[in-house]
Design brief:
The protein has one domain: Na+/H+ antiporter like fold, CATH 1.20.1530. The protein has 15 helices and no strands. The chain has helices spanning 2-24, 31-53, 63-86, 90-101, 109-117, 124-144, 153-157, 159-162, 164-177, 184-194, 197-209, 221-246, 251-261, 268-276, 280-305. The longest helix is centred in the C-terminal third of the chain and has 26 residues, at 221-246.
């Protein structure tokens, strides 16, 4: 229980600082844009490269990861299907689908895994799955849709290689898969730059809350409530059903996959929405509301399955 509370406390404090900066106008009118570009084009790619370059890719091949992948596909697919039927548009539907299944495995998942599950490395498969597969696919869709990509078919094919987040992730995977060791003089500056990513994303999110509508009451109310319901209730329920009924997991492994699936939507999704100027209110409200709802959900899961 301590891990859940401490993880949320750290995030809440940094977001509150961001809110204070936004309210006072400390960083000026362009503060959110500058921090967003910093996180998306510099710090985020550096963090993903340094993380994946040292990662053990073998953790991608496990029953726990299959549960995560299938539960993510189930909730994101549900949102996407409804978005297509309701004609919400490719950009809004993509952001909503991400908010429905992309968990906060980094700055919240790590402390919760460490204190609740007893092993911070248990979030590694989820982290790798999201940055290696989900993020490049989603950002490629955003690149090719709402931003009006007009290049040739060859340029469209190379879209993922022009996206900083996807390029950082794929470069890290290549280094890890090849068994290469990045020299300290190269890795250390990248690590230092990458350490700005999470604080920048949290501060940006906090700044965006100033003057924004209460979550679930804006023009994207239906989309927000749907994504939060899928993220906070649907994904952990699907993960539990798959882990227990299909893969026969019990005890600690069952608790692991359900807890990681019950994590709220990740704050960096707002960075993506801001970067592409699409569904920013949807991302902001979904992240905030799913974070609030996830507290009792995680406590309940830990109490029942722990």
């Amino acid at each position: 229980m301590e891990g859940v509370l401490s993880g949320f406390a750290v995030i809440a404090i940094v977001i509150a600082v961001g809110y204070g900066l936004g309210r006072r106008g400390t960083l000026g009118e362009q503060g959110i844009d500058v921090l967003t570009r910093l996180a998306f084009t510099v710090a985020g790619p550096a963090l993903l490269f340094t993380t994946l370059a040292k990662a053990d890719l073998s953790v991608l091949f496990s029953s726990r990861l299959l549960v995560t992948a299938l539960s993510t596909a189930a909730v994101a697919g549900t949102f996407t299907a409804i978005g297509v039927l309701r004609r919400w548009g490719a950009g809004r539907t993509t952001i909503g689908a991400l908010c429905s299944g992309y968990v906060n495995s980094g700055n919240l998942g790590i402390p919760i895994a460490a204190y609740v599950l007893g092993d911070a490395s248990l979030v590694a498969p989820v982290l790798l799955f999201q940055v290696v597969l989900v993020t490049p696919i989603a950002l490629t869709i955003l690149d090719l849709s709402g931003t009006g990509e007009k290049g040739s078919p060859w340029q469209r094919l190379l879209t993922p290689l022009r996206n900083p987040i996807a390029l950082g992730s794929l470069s890290g995977v290549v280094v890890s898969a090849a068994g290469l060791r990045v020299p300290g003089p190269v890795l250390d500056p990248l690590t230092l730059i990458g350490n700005m990513s999470v604080p920048a994303a949290l501060l940006t999110f906090g700044m965006s809350l100033h003057g924004g509508a209460a979550p679930g009451r804006g023009r994207d109310r239906q989309l927000v409530l749907l994504s939060v319901a899928l993220k906070s209730l649907g994904q952990p329920a699907v993960a539990w059903a798959l882990a227990r009924g299909v893969f026969g997991l019990h005890g600690a492994p069952l608790l692991d996959v359900v807890v990681t699936s019950a994590l709220p939507a990740a704050q960096n999704l707002f960075t993506y929405a801001s970067r592409y100027r699409v569904a920013e209110s949807l991302a902001r409200e979904s992240i905030l509301l799913s974070t609030v709802v996830s507290v009792p959900v995680l406590v309940g899961v830990a109490a029942v399955l722990g």
